[in-house]
Amino acid sequence: MQAVSEAKRGRMGFLWTGTWILVLVLQSSPIQAFPKPGGSQEKPLHNRELSAERPLNEQIAEAEADKIKKTYPPENKPGESNYSFVDNLNLLKAITEKEKTEKEKQSIRSSPYDNKLNVEDADSTKNRRLIDDYDSTKSGLNHKFQDDPDGLHQLDGTPLTAEDIVQKIATRIYEENDRGVFDKIVSKLLNLGLITESQAHTLEDEVAEVLQKLISKEANTYEEEPNKPTSVTESQAGKIPEKVTPMATIQDGFTNGQNDETVSNTLTLTNGLERRTKIYNEDNFEELQYFPNFYALLKSIDSEKEAKEKETLITIMKTLIDFVKMMVKYGTISPEEGVSYLENLDETIALQTKNKLEKNVTDNKSKLFPDDNPRGKTDEPKGKTEAYLEAIRKNIEWLKKHNKKGNKEDYDLSKMRDFINQQADAYVEKGILDEEEADAIKRIYSSL
Amino acid sequence: MAAQGGRALLALCGALVACGWLLGAGAQEPGAPAAGMRRRRRLQQEDGISFEYHRYPELREALVSVWLQCTAISRIYTVGRSFEGRELLVIELSDNPGVHEPGEPEFKYIGNMHGNEAVGRELLIFLAQYLCNEYQKGNETIVKLIHSTRIHIMPSLNPDGFEKAASQPGELKDWFVGRSNAQGIDLNRNFPDLDRIVYVNEKEGGPNNHLLKNLKKIVDQNTKLAPETKAIIHWIMDIPFVLSANLHGGDLVANYPYDETRTGSAHEYSSCPDDAIFQSLARAYSSFNPPMSDPKRPPCRKNDDDSSFIDGTTNGAAWYSVPGGMQDFNYLSSNCFEITVELSCEKFPPEETLKSYWEDNKNSLISYLEQIHRGVKGFVRDLQGNPIANATISVEGIDHDVTSAKDGDYWRLLVPGNYKLTASAPGYLAITKKVAVPYSPAVGVDFELESFSERKEEEKEELMEWWKMMSETLNF
């Protein structure tokens, strides 16, 4: 019994390794279910939109502003406290050095980690001089990692190979039974643009392999069928092809696309790192029949002006699809759930797009406001629109809470909208609001 | 399996979040600018209150933000325009914004009448946001206040002067630049001097209240009045304000009427008929402001004469004579009792100090607001229950009457004690009632006045009755 559960735990650990990483986000969202855009939640649509949008922005802003700082999601990752900020720095430093020298390399086996990383020292948070760690002049890394037998050392002098590193990560994940370890590292790397997703893919594969070995080894010690994990996954894998055909098609479509030379690197934070495999092109968009809203969004983006954004979006989509594929492959979710998720994703994209468009419109209009303020012009309109949005959000929240005792249903949104429209117009007449502001406010309310 | 699946979905959602963010970020480069702005705002922000100086656009935006957050209890309006065309903005907070509910007293705060006295302006912006926040949090005191009062907040009566003062380079603002309005008029010397009239009336007899007759005509035809002054006067006449405070800077004291000396000397204590309640009102402000009420506080400047300051309060004229000020104009032309609060030794202190000024003053601002619910209040009606507007309510021993508003409602601030209140109106028979007044809340006293004609009818009926009785008795 225990063996089975151990094996299960191991398999879970392995599955966790196999699940996909967060792209560009450090903290997981507190949402505890499949993301469904607004409709099927307990909270009504408009509240969720308003409260969902700002946390995102805040999250990302915090992530950007506090790049080096580390914050832990409080609820569900107990094992990470040992994994220190210092180690991440080491890792990041190593990656930076490595990436600088690895521009044109196409190796599938290239691991983004070099041997400056010392996972085992996670507990020794003391006595690490960060400046030293981050001093790139100390790095001796000039060769592709695998072919370099000499030269790569830990800070304490002992050499560490790529395999060792992967081994260490896998071990840690296995020990803590927490794939969050892996998540944290990789998401940070991606966020800083120090690795691409393809490299993260690779890393994941490598770690997964090692982890699987670990699990198999352990399974063996308990005298369970050693290949039980693998056989399960194989049978799962067998099921996969039919159900995930749409996704596979999309994936293939992406893979087979031609290299569009005008598209710069997708991740806005990377500098000139060439993407290894996935190259996108307008022609591939017909694959996105499964994602009509996403497709529409891509179409609406001007290729010349916002090529970067377009490619980022494609990358993310592709990443998400891969993610789902992986989860299905490893049995974390059923194929039906995977498909359903992607459908919900598309709907959510539609929602976000709409919000973004509105925000863009109001932002653009804000920029036209006469500004006799010595503070920077770009700061002010954004600040004001944000402030207004935040105020409206608080108002809606309070009104809902307040009306709960009164009516069974939600407060009358259309009445509110009318009232706001009326007031906004009156205020414009009296010189209390600009026309643009009034329009923005009315628009915000009408989008609820 | 389910739990793990959930966690996987957590990660998925994270990816979604990323997707959403990228969609939302547009072409904006993440990093320094947005983060920098947010960082700056974060440093100085607290629950929507940003502790920094607001120029006119920011002032407007701040008030709009409060309104947007608290549409159910707020309303922005303007009482007119400054000389350079800036709106004299007011934000009103009440449970029924835009409406005078019969019996609900009206309060106002006015700041920045002298454009270079900046703290009051900022405090009032902070106050508006604070009241909105606290109301939504369910703060009982604030909820009660907003439900029982109509609060009007005008952060700046002299926005033109403020812009001039704020545009000065460097940290230290000049003592005078920006003080007056754009025409060079000191608004706090620009109001019709009713003190002079009341001093004459005291000696020779005459009304003790509402001394500005034919008001609108006088105001509109007076070329010496600044547009800001005119706007305020109309405002005072339109809304039956009960209590008010006028925020200044340059010293640290709560100043009450009269501002002008009776004899014309430079300074001598010149009490008004309501000296007792005014002292109490001034104390209600100063006692919650630690530096203001600190008896050991040294004067703002070495040679300042603050000998008249007691517990952070002072009679205006005892400090120095001010003719044509807004404070006394309120008292002598309307029912409104106003004091002048000097908030800061420095007229335009550094921005970093604003937060601490808020901390020093927020309790005072609330405490002073609550003072409106003191004394006696009620309705004056006729026998049919119809309101009698403009009835006079006089208090025995206090040579200052108040009048009832359009709905017959009146409010009479009084310190604790036993009083005789008389309500009278032309064509009606006066009624006197005895009232015992505690510190607070206000005691409700209503009057039902009998008109002369009704009394005549009554008397006639009485006469007829008597005649009938007589004739029956005497058999003729």
UniProtKB/TrEMBL annotation, chain A:
Q: Name one GO cellular component term.
A: secretory granule membrane
Keywords of this protein's UniProt record, alphabetized?
Cleavage on pair of basic residues, Cytoplasmic vesicle, Membrane, Secreted, Signal
Q: What Pfam families would the database entry show? A: SGIII
> Biological process GO annotation list?
protein localization to secretory granule
Q: Where in the cell is it found?
A: Cytoplasmic vesicle, Secretory vesicle membrane; Secreted
Quick check: keyword Signal in the entry?
yes
The annotated regions of Basic and acidic residues compositional bias extend over 97-107
Q: Where is this region: Disordered?
A: 97-119, 363-383
Q: For this UniProt entry, what is the primary localization, expressed as one broad class?
A: membrane
Q: How does it sit in the membrane?
A: Peripheral membrane protein
Signal sequence extent: 1-33
Q: Name the chain's protein.
A: Secretogranin-3
- Give the organism, scientific name: Enhydra lutris kenyoni (northern sea otter)
What is the primary gene name for this protein? Answer: LOC111161702
TrEMBL record, chain B:
Protein EC: 3.4.17.10
According to the entry, every stretch annotated as the Peptidase M14 domain falls at 52-372
Catalysis performed (reactions): Release of C-terminal arginine or lysine residues from polypeptides
Which N-terminal stretch is annotated as signal sequence?
A: 1-27
Identify its protein family.
Answer: Belongs to the peptidase M14 family.
* The protein's name in its UniProt record: Carboxypeptidase E
Q: How does it sit in the membrane?
A: Peripheral membrane protein
Identify the species of origin: Enhydra lutris kenyoni (northern sea otter)
A GO biological process held by the record: peptide metabolic process
Quick check: keyword Transferase in the entry?
no
PROSITE patterns tied to this protein: CARBOXYPEPT_ZN_1, CARBOXYPEPT_ZN_2, PEPTIDASE_M14, PROKAR_LIPOPROTEIN
What are its cofactors? Zn(2+)
Q: Which UniProt keywords apply?
A: Carboxypeptidase, Cytoplasmic vesicle, Glycoprotein, Hydrolase, Membrane, Metal-binding, Metalloprotease, Protease, Secreted, Signal, Zinc
EC category name: hydrolase
> Where does it primarily localize?
membrane
Q: Which residues form the active site?
A: 342
GO CC annotation: extracellular space; transport vesicle membrane
What functional role does this protein have?
Sorting receptor that directs prohormones to the regulated secretory pathway. Also acts as a prohormone processing enzyme in neuro/endocrine cells, removing dibasic residues from the C-terminal end of peptide hormone precursors after initial endoprotease cleavage.
| Subcellular localization, as worded in the UniProt entry | Cytoplasmic vesicle, Secretory vesicle membrane; Secreted
Tell me the GO molecular function terms. metallocarboxypeptidase activity; zinc ion binding
Xref: InterPro entries: CarboxyPept-like_regulatory, CARBOXYPEPT_ZN_1, CARBOXYPEPT_ZN_2, M14_CPE_CPD, Peptidase_M14, Peptidase_M14_domain
Which positions, given as ranges, span the membrane? none
UniProt subunit comment: Interacts with Secretogranin III/SCG3.
